[in-house]
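[stage:ingest] chain + small molecule (flavin mononucleotide)
[stage:ingest] validated
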Amino acid sequence: MPIVTSLTKMLGIRIPVVQGGMQWVGVPQLVAAVSNAGGLGVLTALTQPNPEALRVAIRETRKLTDKPFGVNITLLPSINPPDYAGYAKVAVEEGVRIFETAGNNPKKLVEYFKANGCKVIHKCTTIRHAKAGARMGVDALSIDGFECAGHPGEEDIGGLVLLARAASEIGIPYIASGGIANGRGLAAVLALGAVGANMGTRFMCTVESPIHQNIKEKIVASNEQDTVHIFRTLHNTARVYKNKISQEVVAIESRPGGAKFEDVRELVSGARGRKVYELGDPDYGIWTAGIGMGLIHDIPTCKDLLTTIERDAEEIIRGLGQMVVPERQAKL
Ligand SMILES: Cc1cc2nc3c(=O)[nH]c(=O)nc-3n(C[C@H](O)[C@H](O)[C@H](O)COP(=O)(O)O)c2cc1C
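[stage:predict] done
[stage:export] tokens:
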């Protein structure tokens, strides 16, 4: 008996779980494994060096699954922005009809996707931005609480309050994101009015995730204490794994007079972060992880993970239903 929500109906998936875009991690083998297991896998466009490489990745994914999958386009603050429109065009040409947008104002992309009959899920971290996304005409929001890996915004509001506010104030469906890693989390966010859950860190630590085994084992050995916020003082906060490099960045930011991006540029370079996943050295650079690590104790296949999440969420939801009894049966 599957859990049916407006997300499962909108996307044509069995389990209301989305694997959020993840730089260097959201590649065909993981995306296809998530979609084959009944969730929604999402390819990360900017992991591909250019739009044509994204075309190849989409074709590769399609060879591995006949189930729906999406493409994430993350709009970064950048002096030389990537060719966002080019990535979007290629994905639409290749038949992708589900997009996750994140970061800076995605208005132009949303208009393009909607004109091409696509479903758009926009990721945001505040109720204000969620409302702006709804006005833009996106189909659903993905609301990232303070618990999340990556960019939680600057307002530090946890999912419990964000999601409950969304339930009464956002007129369109929303999925919950940040710190969700098991069936209990999925059941909890459904109770908070979400139509599904978005997970990042949990999917990094699966058999099909492309990162080095050492890093997966490091996640299993870590807990919710093992992340740190960098770029706080630059107003571009990012929750990353607490290692030598991220602690050095925080120390530089804490110096009297603060720090400029130039002061930490070399330490935080994306190329170094990518090497962490290739070499399996958790101290080589900055890598993204969320406090959901406290809930991750294994490295399952995506199939086993999603089957367990679905089963556990169903059991919890049924159990909660049993708490409600007729007045005459309630022994006070
Ligand atoms: C390794 C990693 C890389 C990520 N890269 C991106 C990205 O490029 N774009 C994006 O929108 N979100 C990115 N995220 C955020 C996830 O899509 C998701 O919102 C977040 O992981 C949810 O929090 P959780 O990790 O607690 O589940 C990344 C997360 C991780 C763990």
